[in-house]
Amino acid sequence: MRIVDAHVHLWDVDAFAIPWFRDGMGLPRISSVEEYRHAAEPCGVEGAVAVQVADSVEEARWLTAVTAADAVVRRAVLQYEPAAGHPLGATAFEGADLAAVRAAVPQRAADLSDVVGLDDLADALGASGRVLELLLRPEQLGGAAALASRHPDTAIVLCHLGLGHGEPDTEWLGGLTAFAERPNAHAKFSGLLSPTRTDAGLADLADTALRLFRADRLMFGSDWPMSARTHSYADVVAATRRALPHPDTTDFWAGTVTRLYGCPSSRR
Fold it and tell me: What class is the 3-261 domain?
């Protein structure tokens, strides 16, 4: 089975600052492409998308250089930092070979009205055939649905089903349903494994995601190395396979991310 991983993280704390990083979090100071490939390739991974974890230009330049040179981690998603006159954000510098820009805004208002330039960002990405990613909390899913409705020509991808390690409830389900009703809405089945989430709980999330998005608007993401604090890469893949025992999930494992992010399998 081909796997193209829609959500991994690379960084080097010694090369550029990551404001949220603290020793003792169970995370490596350097998350390298070599370590990712060592963990992922035995599981059948042929390609991956790396998502920026902070918002500095230095990190953005480093990440796009890494993905430009590697045969497996092929595409970069840069983090959005509003900047006057730059609709793609301060870190999405001119000439960057990026597949998408992520607005990581869980601290913002529920309707996303205080995310400066978000509509301009959506317009610019849609016009250039790129993807807008959203990292947000469940209460903001209604705002995401409204954003997708305002920008029907822009592919919008929700990270971690808008849930992550949280517990699904009626508010989350209602918001996710509203978002999924927009044809340009997509989601990553990523960042969902936790020490307390059972196989049955993950299977319930998979059933909900497939029902709302279908496999052609849904994609696998490992969230490595964040996930490696509690689960090996092989564990993440195995748990996800158990949760999706459906015969036709080619789009989920590789097709959707390849289509949206232009991330074909390995060049080797």
Answer: alpha beta
